[in-house]
Amino acid sequence: MTGGNRGIGLAIARELSAAGDAVAVTYRSGEAPAGLFGVKCDVTSAEDVDSAFAKVEAEQGPVEVLVSNAGITRDKILAVMRGEDFDAVLDANLTGAYRVAKRAVKNMIRARSGRLVFVSSVVAFNGQSGQSNYAASKAGLVGFARSLARELGGRNITANVVAPGFVDTDMTAGLSDQIKAAAVERIPLGRTASPEEVAKVVRFLAGADAGYVTGAVVPVDGGLAMGL
């Protein structure tokens, strides 16, 4: 999985590992998580992606499940957002998903089996002031995954999207109490999610029990974007 050394990504990696899967994580900065096989990789580089897959395949064999989670934010209102900020977020969050999915499906097509899970965001459906680049990248994952679901379904390869809402991570920990309280007020369940709650949904989509689920968008947002 990509972006697996912190936050939601790390929770997913540990959940899959606990379920008995051989898990490999990529990370752009920091260190590999303890107890997991890690490969440094920048998903904006096709060469990095190919090299990372080669290392994982040499260590663990062909990739049977891809969880595309790596992403960045560069928040600004549109009037002052630089073109490079828009391009960088789309490149990491959406085109990065294309790069890793393209590399992963080569072996999946041969094996006539595979799971693709893309981590989007509630922002893809609600929108968010100052995040037009991020929202566009995360919304793009839905169309990308659903196209792959149609394209690859005949090879027994599923493609699904998980859309987390407000999750307790390092990123949200830096927000003020006022912003957190305002966010929780809009959530029907009245609370934020833990990374582990998102991870359990990903584990389901990656497993045998989800063999007939493809092209789905599964919100893990406490009801925040229901109906959208």
TrEMBL record:
Any one GO molecular function term: oxidoreductase activity, acting on the CH-OH group of donors, NAD or NADP as acceptor
Pfam families per record: adh_short_C2
Gene3D superfamilies found in the cross-reference section: NAD(P)-binding Rossmann-like Domain
InterPro entries, sorted: KR_dom, NAD(P)-bd_dom_sf, Sc_DH/Rdtase_CS, SDR_fam
PROSITE patterns xref list: ADH_SHORT
Oxidoreductase as UniProt keyword: yes
Superkingdom of the organism of origin: Bacteria
Keywords: Oxidoreductase
Keyword field contains Oxidoreductase: yes
Ketoreductase domain boundaries: 2-170
UniProt family annotation: Belongs to the short-chain dehydrogenases/reductases (SDR) family.
The name this protein goes by in its record: Beta-ketoacyl-ACP reductase
